[in-house]
Amino acid sequence: MAHVNPKAVLEGRIPGRPPVGMIIGMTVSGVCVLVALGLTAAVGGPGFWVGVLLAIIPIPVLVALSLTLDRLEPEPPRALAFSFLWGAGVAVLGALVLNTLGLLYVTVPIFGETEGHFVSATFGAPVIEETLKGAVLFGLLWFRRNEIDGFADGIIYACMVGLGFAMMENITYYMRAYDDGGAQQLTAVFVLRGLIVPLSHPLFTSMTGLGVAYAATHRRWQVAAPLVGLLGAMILHGLWNGGASLGLGGLAVVYVLDFCVLVALITVVFVERRGTVRRIEAYLPMYASTGLVTPQDVRMLRSMPSRRYARRWARRVGGTSAARAMTDYQLAATELALLHKRADRGVADQNWFVTRRDALLNLMALARQAFLRTPPRPGVPGPPWAGEGPSGFGWPGPAPGGPPPGPYAR
């Protein structure tokens, strides 16, 4: 069997071709992060490093929580990292410059000092910040549309952008709290921004993510859907900033609003996941003649617990390489079902559909061979999810020796 790069197949890119655009984007975003940090440090006091530390601490947990929504069909790590860096770098630096210029030359001269800051926070900042954060989502829609398979993907990318932006913004808030009020005020701000409502920016930008995801997976409203999503992000952001400036009552209202949005987004993700499971059950049986999937294998693929069980069994059978092969098989099968979803909606070019389908089937075949070419270990049963029925991962007789080929070789 020809060599296959599983990672390239799953990401839908040409093997061996470096993602030049992604590399340039991450480099530019990283430079913007350094510039933004330098400017913040230059105008700040001794609380700068305290702010940096406290802003970073919750990020691994928040990123992990966000990624749990995307376990059925995880997004490419490079694209997620780029989205995070864009939010932390380009969006933050652009917002810093534009918001400052708006205050100096527009809102304060027109409305005065107090009213000018309120108008800027409630109307100007949401437009500027959500446009800058949403720009990377529009870029993904334009350049990497095929990676966005549904609303969950749009939400995940939006969460990465929002978390990057929030992390950098929180540095400034924590630094000012420490410099102005010491440890007591810093603790209050950290509890408020880092623990109680750490997902406000991801929630705002998720509106843009929903619009972009709709445009990527439907033939209609290609332009209107992303713009409506961006408008929704601006409105939510403006309501938050306006409500937060009205004291405890305003804060309570926007907290409830954010919670309702969070519940709605989680509901969207789980409803869409059920739809993906139904597509797995509907489309994969048509490939039974290839020997790559049986009704028992479809049953394994339709739930996260059964997938984990299959990966644990694979590790017992053939160690780390077999577990990796099982993971690739599961992801390729899910991508195959989502590919048919695109075709049903008329957003998949026929030639691309055939090429993509064959690449995914080849990857599934390679992963299956990693088992069939590995002698079963004594005492390890066949695929436990199959019972007495057939499975593409069963041994059809004495298993031939020798290491599995390609990327699964140990």
TrEMBL record:
Keywords: Hydrolase, Membrane, Metalloprotease, Protease, Transmembrane, Transmembrane helix. InterPro entries: PrsW. It comes from Actinomadura meridiana. The lineage of its organism: Bacteria, Bacillati, Actinomycetota, Actinomycetes, Streptosporangiales. The chain crosses the membrane at residues 20-42, 48-67, 79-106, 118-143, 155-175, 195-216, 223-240, 246-271. One of its GO terms (molecular function) is metallopeptidase activity. It holds the Pfam family PrsW-protease. Residues 375-384, 397-410 have a biased composition (Pro residues). Signal peptide: none annotated. Residues 374-410 are annotated as: Disordered. This is PrsW family intramembrane metalloprotease.
